[in-house]
């Protein structure tokens, strides 16, 4: 089915969306962001986007920008909708936002154990450039973050 047939669209996140976003976030992450973090992200003027399917919020992604670079702070798809390419569409969209805003690259961190996300980033042209030891909280102590970057070609 085409994106149009699926009723798929990207919308900028609003304060009023945070309740649903938080529900998706809690379902998807072992250590979800709080409502306050989402409010701060919106107030700071970050690129905060939602992926809608048939008018339902299916995923969200947040990109911060500064000094000509960008950082993917969060990307999340409601588990009910995972494994159907929505994460990839969200990632492509957020990279396009970085390009529109003239960023030369997108950085991100990913848990060393998060193979699904890692493979998705690799498919989309991200390369591993480093590791942050014990970056994430975990049930059994800290977990390392892998640092990835995608260089962007600006015309
Ligand atoms: C990471 C995340 C955003 C990916 O979202 P997603 O919608 O599941 O991603 P996609 O569907 O694009 O790709 C995931 C897998 O589904 C497969 N897939 C995509 N479309 C498919 C389809 N139509 N049929 C079958 N499989 C499909 C992809 O090949 C991929 O497989 P792989 O894991 O073997 O590489 C999602 O898993 C998530 O929200 N995880 C929790 C939060 C998180 O970890 N965020 C990243 C933090 S760094």
Question: What Rg do the Cα atoms give?
Answer: 15 Å
Strand content: 35-45%
Count of discrete alpha- or pi-helical segments spanning 4 or more residues: 5
Series of H and E elements: HEHHEEEHEHEE
Question: Helix- and strand-based class?
Answer: alpha+beta
Q: Bound compounds, please?
A: coenzyme A
Number of domains: 1
**Nearest-integer average pLDDT:** 95
- The third-level CATH topology is Aminopeptidase
Q: How many individual β-strands?
A: 7
Looking at the overall shape, the CATH architecture is 3-Layer(aba) Sandwich
Largest sheet: 7 strands, mixed
User: Given this structure, which CATH class is correct?
Assistant: Alpha Beta
Distance between the termini: 32 Å
Strand order of the largest sheet: 1-2-3-4-5-7-6
Helicity, as a percent range: 25-40%
Unreliable stretches covering 5 or more consecutive residues: none
CATH superfamily: Gcn5-related N-acetyltransferase (GNAT)
Overall geometry comes to: globular
Question: What descriptive keywords fit this protein?
Answer:
155 residues; Aminopeptidase; 7-stranded mixed β-sheet; 5 helices; 31% helix; 37% strand; globular; binds coenzyme A
Can you lay out the helices and strands and say which pair or pack?
Layout: H1 3-6, E1 8-12, H2 18-28, H3 35-43, E2 47-53, E3 56-66, E4 69-77, H4 86-100, E5 105-111, H5 115-123, E6 127-136, E7 143-151
Parallel strand pairs: 4-5
Antiparallel strand pairs: 1-2, 2-3, 3-4, 5-7, 6-7
The structure holds coenzyme A.
Write up this protein.
The protein has 155 residues and is an alpha+beta fold. It has one domain: Gcn5-related N-acetyltransferase (GNAT) (Aminopeptidase, 3-Layer(aba) Sandwich). Helix content is 31%, strand content 37%. It has five helices and seven strands, in the order αβααβββαβαββ. It has helices at residues 3-6, 18-28, 35-43, 86-100, 115-123; strands at 8-12, 47-53, 56-66, 69-77, 105-111, 127-136, 143-151. A seven-stranded mixed β-sheet has the order 1-2-3-4-5-7-6, with helices on both faces. Helix 4 (86-100) links the parallel strand 4 (69-77) and strand 5 (105-111). The chain is globular, with a radius of gyration of 15 Å. The structure holds coenzyme A. Coenzyme A is lined by residues 28-29, 75-77, 82-88, 110, 114, 116-117, 119-120.
